[in-house]
Amino acid sequence: MLKKERHDSIMRQINLHNRVLTSDLVQLLSVSEDTIRRDLQELAERDQLYKVHGGALSKSYQSSFDDSTVYAKEAKIIIAKKAITLIKDGMVILTGGGTTIIEMVKQLPENLHATFFTISPFVAIELANYPRVEVILIGGLFSKNSQVTYGGHVINQLSEISPDLCLLGTSALHPNDGLTDTDWEINQLKKTMLNCSKKTAVLCISEKLNISLRLKVAPITNIQYLITELPTTDPQLDDYQIKSLQIL
Amino acid sequence: MLKKERHDSIMRQINLHNRVLTSDLVQLLSVSEDTIRRDLQELAERDQLYKVHGGALSKSYQSSFDDSTVYAKEAKIIIAKKAITLIKDGMVILTGGGTTIIEMVKQLPENLHATFFTISPFVAIELANYPRVEVILIGGLFSKNSQVTYGGHVINQLSEISPDLCLLGTSALHPNDGLTDTDWEINQLKKTMLNCSKKTAVLCISEKLNISLRLKVAPITNIQYLITELPTTDPQLDDYQIKSLQIL
DNA sequence: ATTAAACACGCAATTAAACGCAAAATAAGT
DNA sequence: ACTTATTTTGCGTTTAATTGCGTGTTTAAT
């Protein structure tokens, strides 16, 4: 088996399971441990995965779990400040969850007058500090992992609203594969959020760029704004310079 | 399981719960106590948590779940422990918001298997720690004062469910006037919650007894359980000794 | 003071990683 | 096609990391 095939296979396993054991890969690909180790090392050098003792982890896995030590907070504040330029008085806005969105909420102007729909209790609680903001928490099953509401009931309610702007945190963004995710239910949810909104902005710290996960949410052409902490001219963003997408 | 996964899992527990017991982690991650201790030590060295005898504490106490300032906490814990005796495996339960209810949630047995509907995001977040509990957050307008969802949408959804038990925190309870409140919308809400549930338990610290507010929610005969921090024989409860009301 | 739980320390067993080297495979040039 | 240069791989060995257990000590609660 060619090295490149092995690497692809390893990346597939990682995207599929968020983690992989060296020993499993040895069996799966029937090569020696040394080879796997060398492969993992190489992929780690290319920033495609996170190497740990005993195996490797998905790079995006990192932040899906640690949601407290607010990872890359500086970057998220920069993103937040860019994002609020999209928000005008009187708008109806739909948001997902995640630390990036919460950072954004904290940066909102004191006297903003707007209506927010959200699937995240944390976002709702944070928004409650703004006297002129109307907050509607969309109810449904509560996801223990993502800490947002999800499921059919949420989807139904989303189909009844038509916000001006949808603000979405991301697990992964890729120039070709667009927005992807790992969880089926959250995937459905994000799809619906995107579809019901007039415009969509994706908030994405740069390390989540060029990553592609198992489940496809939407092609990049369905997104109108991409917001990262990088300057708009940064070469990392070159692959995203397409006409339908405005980079902030 | 990889060490980093363990660490993330531990941090997640801490961020959600603000505290964690070594023994719980041993069970949760099925490794020896030594391993957990070494993990905690490592995380403590990295300033990610405070290590204490028996477990560890969150380093950042800033969360909205800071319960160190909860008023009359001791009393509320007593109430909580009484309340959970009403909860059996398999039940469908509806809860309101408030610190008393949150204290109760924190006291629930680790392996409770039940379905909870709630109008409080805080309660939902806290319930999310219980692996076998299904949490449904009832969505709607989010009240800045009471930090619960309210309004027509909530009322509608309540009318579609029929929980076995409704757990209600109280603003005021009076032998003649029953359950009363000050806010019109919250009042409507509590009425509906009471009506849709098969039985209702009122959680009430003793200092809120014998108080009557402007708006009537329900007569005392509509309530099945009264839970206070007092012993059931306390003279303060004499006025509430009626046949339809069980005092815990 | 007594007792049980929690802890720290060292040890040994297991497992993973790193290193050097030679065989095998691949690519390149004649 | 044949040889040479380069890369890749597997093996043996060494080194490091991780874990669980036994033992004795500390801590907290009664």
UniProtKB/TrEMBL annotation, chains A, B:
<dbReference type="Pfam" id="PF00455">
    <property type="entry name" value="DeoRC"/>
</dbReference>
<protein>
    <submittedName>
        <fullName>DNA-binding transcriptional regulator of sugar metabolism, DeoR/GlpR family</fullName>
    </submittedName>
</protein>
<dbReference type="InterPro" id="IPR050313">
    <property type="entry name" value="Carb_Metab_HTH_regulators"/>
</dbReference>
<dbReference type="InterPro" id="IPR014036">
    <property type="entry name" value="DeoR-like_C"/>
</dbReference>
<dbReference type="InterPro" id="IPR036390">
    <property type="entry name" value="WH_DNA-bd_sf"/>
</dbReference>
<keyword id="KW-0678">Repressor</keyword>
<dbReference type="InterPro" id="IPR037171">
    <property type="entry name" value="NagB/RpiA_transferase-like"/>
</dbReference>
<keyword id="KW-0238">DNA-binding</keyword>
<dbReference type="InterPro" id="IPR018356">
    <property type="entry name" value="Tscrpt_reg_HTH_DeoR_CS"/>
</dbReference>
<dbReference type="InterPro" id="IPR036388">
    <property type="entry name" value="WH-like_DNA-bd_sf"/>
</dbReference>
<keyword id="KW-0804">Transcription</keyword>
<keyword id="KW-0805">Transcription regulation</keyword>
<dbReference type="InterPro" id="IPR001034">
    <property type="entry name" value="DeoR_HTH"/>
</dbReference>
<dbReference type="GO" id="GO:0003700">
    <property type="term" value="F:DNA-binding transcription factor activity"/>
</dbReference>
<dbReference type="Pfam" id="PF08220">
    <property type="entry name" value="HTH_DeoR"/>
</dbReference>
<dbReference type="GO" id="GO:0003677">
    <property type="term" value="F:DNA binding"/>
</dbReference>
<feature type="domain" description="HTH deoR-type">
    <location>
        <begin position="3"/>
        <end position="58"/>
    </location>
</feature>
